[in-house]
Amino acid sequence: MGNSIIQDNKNNNSLIIGWKLQGRHILIIGNNHIAANRIEFVLDANPRKITLITPANKVSSDKIKKYITEQAVTHKNNEFNEKYLVEQTEEPVDLILTAVDDVKLSHEIASVARKLKIPINVAEIPQLCDFLFIPTYRDGPLQVAVSTNGTSSQISRKLRQHIIESLPKNVTSAINNVSLIKKQIGNNTILNKITNPLPLNELADLTNNDIERLVSECKNLEDEFDASSESSTTLGDSTQMLSIKSKIMDNDITLEPFTKGGIRFIDGKTAVSYVAYALSNTSFIYPTLRSHYVGEVVSQWSSQNAENVFGKVCNAIQMQTRSGASSAILGAASCMDSGEVISVFSSSSSIVPMISNLYNLSHENIPLVIHVSAYGFNDNFEKISNYHDAFSARDTGLGIINSYSTQEIHDIAIITHLISISTSSSYLHVFDGVKTAQESSKVNLLSYPEIHKISKEVIAEGYPSTTSNAVDIFEKISNKVGKILKNVYKAFEYIGSPTAETLLIVYGGETTVVKETVDRISQNGSKIGAIIVRVYRPWSEKHFLAALPKTTKRIAVLEQASSNIDGSYNLGSSLFNDVSISLYDGLTGSPPQLIDVKYSPSQKFNFRVVNSLIKQLEEGKSINFDENLPVDKNYPALTNVNQYVFWDTESRKTFYSSQHISQILAHNLKLNVSSLPTFDIYNNGGVVTTKLQLGSGIHDAESGVDFISINDASLTSKYNTLTYAKNGTIVLLNTNWTVDELETKLPNDFRYEAANRNIRLHIIDVDKIVNDLNLDVDVGTSVVLQAAFFKITSSEIKFHFNVSDTISSFYENGNEKEVGLLFGSIVQETEKAIVYVEIPPTWLILEKSDQILLPDIIDNSFCPNLDQQLTETPKLTAWRAAARNFLFKEAYKTNQIVRPDVSEKTYTVYVSENRRLTPESYDRYLFHIEFDTSGTDLKYDLGEALGVYGHNDTEEVNKFLEYYELNPNDVISIINKEGNKYESRTIFQVFSQVLDVFGRPPKRFYETLAQFALDEKEKNKLLFIAGKEGTEEFKNRVTETSTYADILFEFTSARPPVEDLVQMITPIKPRHYSIASAQSVHPNSVHLLIVTVEWNISSGKKRYGQCTRYLSGLKVGEGVTVSIKPSVMKLPPRDSQPIIMAGLGTGMAPFRAFIEERAYRKSQGKEVGPMILYFGSRNRSMEYLYGEELEAYHMEGLLTYLRLAFSRDQPHKVYIQHKMDEDSELIQKYLMQDEGWFYLCGPTWPVPDVKDAIVKSFMSTGELTAGEANDWVNKLKDMERYILEVY
Fold this sequence. Notes:
35% of the residues lie in helices and 20% in strands. By secondary structure, the protein is of the alpha/beta class. A hairpin with a 6-residue loop joins β28 (673-680) and β29 (687-694). The longest helix is centred in the N-terminal third of the chain and has 18 residues, at 406-423. It starts with a strand and ends with a strand.
């Protein structure tokens, strides 16, 4: 993909024979037609950016004006200045192309380029060129450049001529045939799979039918053929990407790697499961979610027969939360053998129905630990840390121990299990299920051998349990474990000033924020402190009072209440009562002021809330959580911490990139890394934010983050995505908008905030990179975003690892070398594609809208669209439901749109004429069809194509629906691409107008269909065809044009429900036909010239081209959905310029429009130039298309020369090139002297011979050699006066 270099070892010179323009920044200087041609040449190669430097008032090329208007180039409206190249540090120029008329300026530009070591090509001055173009055909075939490193132009000219003369004669035809196929299917490596085996001669001799067949194969096969066995797999081979899987996003977590201990990047629920599995014989799991619940991995490990520290497989039993829950635990406890341990995984809401049995369990004297993930949902279905329900077990007699970080969950789980084992008593281990359980961070795991060793030591020492000494035992075991883990935990942990006067006592979801806030405030001398309650039950007055500073004057006890807070004093058991009794019984003298601070489960805690709470306490105010007091200026900010926020939408699946980034940083940096995703599955199609932090401390996004990645630009209008941006924050926006388009497409509020906060904005088009490299969407998108992150933040994060190697290490496909090479290319292309955006000063004076955007998403799920909400699937209903929606449009927000599934603008036009042009007895069906465009705003230019959305054959559709037992009048509603609306059609409409049910299916259809096969033999056969072993049979089916319907008829036991089937069949693609009319002559109609496509397969069964069959059968008055596609076929800018047209068969279509347009302009009194038409077909009597019209134009003199080549009307074949040979002098005059234009439209096979005829005409005067004549043709191509539209 890079430059091809021939090295001269002796003289150390090199000859560059190929430049890669894709992904590069190209600078073009000039304003004439040569500069315009160079812009188009570069655009073909998909550059990262094209910058054009020229004063607007000097632009002489209409094409350049168009490129500037359409923003195809970044225009610098000034003369060239060396300063521009020197200052391009964010987006350095890779290549310079100049086309200026000033020779002195050309020398100056070349001098600057060489000084800065930027390769340059100077038009018309070869001695200044580092390389010379050899332009050939459009769409990139044979784009060759020859570098002579600034040496003699004679060498380069000889090389040019040698390359041209060395090419096989039929290479042009082969190139154009392959280009045609590629143009219709896009940049897809499957093209190589089909065309590579064909010899050059066969490629050159492809007929129209051959090309249509190959195009169909390419479109249907897509990425289904297996990757080549060669290690140098083409970058665009999507089968290669499909085989690559993430090592970290798989839901199946294997235990064995963890058992060795050490630093691991895991979340809290995995950490507690690791410990519980190690020390349990039986685990009861009470899930209240469909996935991502605490204890989920325990079931996986048990099914994998993983052994715990006792060398046994823990028996995992999944239970249901209901009234009387935990009876199974009682039953298991009654028949336990000595030494056996039970663990339970539960949410806080599951504790409530267990209460009655927990009283009994507390008297059983069994080693039991219940790990409680404290979470729930409020009335708005938003996640909350539900400690109230968890602590409803405080009077059951079970011990309760809390942990407040991911590392603590691991450590406290070990300590709790060891206490339970050594004292044969039951404990609840409670932790925050919203944050701590879900947050991933670095956790120092004890290995299973270490856990086994310490458990044996604790059991050997023996700890007789009584309520009075339980807390002492906790601290003894904590000290023992702490020596290994370097973390020692106390029953009551004190944080803050040693002489604190104001004290907070906490033990719920607010704990981590309070701890961090108090620690930071007290550093400035504030007399504030906090006691963290770790061992809540049994309550130890002794240990509590020992932690209490003697200087304390006021104490606020924070405690979560039930959902209804009525302000009444709680006389039952509570943390406030425990503290109150301890102070009354244990202190002498006047006790501190005691304040009961109850808060709702929905109350959110952050630094500002806690700061406000402390100020209110210090000022003696009554507590008001809604009062937002300002934070002191000297309030210490987080230090040595980097914070990042990622915004993603579920539909784009970009969320996985942030998970990979977190893992990479955790594995490669010594700093602590923590990552916390939040999910909103109900709004805006599903939105995910991920907060990533490097350094110690809890997430404090409100203090300002260093980097924001907005991976879906639509979110900028739905949320205040810059809420957490500080001055100078780096922002990456994934969008296909250009820099100039940001002015109109970014919301005013976003642009204002970007300017106000001096953000450093970068944009990247991830989809373009993925499509250009033909990557699997999910894997490719994730890798590109990872590469972009590391590129942009490389100056902020001091990492010392190779980005592509590190990213690829987290993926697997069995070939590390292959993955490494591929990812290296992706990273390289990504780094080139990042565009830095200079924020215009005008953004700062924008008026902000009155719209109030949410600063963050509503956190209502634990994973993307899985826990509470199923993915929207198609819905099958009776027609009455659709009728109701249609009749009551406003109530049901129903819109009537012709083709809502199509992104292009479409029009409904009506057939006004459908006329066969060939005799009934003739074996080829060519027809002329006209559509009435009245009442539409359809506009088309000369040479453009009409896209037709064809329908399947009605008889075949009805036959299929009858076989599939579907009611054609039933209505099926399918969710749209944005995921926010349903598109409803009848079953008949879907199978007739939308689904390509009579097209060829890709391999994946066979694989998916196998899942529905009830017959084992049919299932195996389908899987065989879909696998590597069935490649040959699959190819045969492609050759035989086996359709979706054929497969469903064949495998009768595979009958997917229609709701699934409509998602398995690809949609019908539009077919494009050159327009055969000029709108100036036919203002309210559009005409097409079409030949039907049909062929027989080996069985003798006839197959038809779907769209030509549809069009040929249309009756006058029937409606058709169409769109417009641009084309390169345009008339010359001056009416007086000659035009030479060569059309074969239906290739006559655009030339009919050209002739009509010239006739119209002549009728308006304009002088029009001469026209030659070379028309070729088989027989004059059968295929003289529009013959009467052409003869009339010729007799009138408008069509100056009419040259007809009917190949089969005489013994020897006569083609258009033979007629052109007869007009050599005329062609030479029109093209070389009179600035005429040449056009060829039709099949590809005559292209080489037609070019040879033109070359001969240029040599006819005797003044040009063959090489010079070829150069002239190439020059015509550069000037767009030699235009091919072949198929």
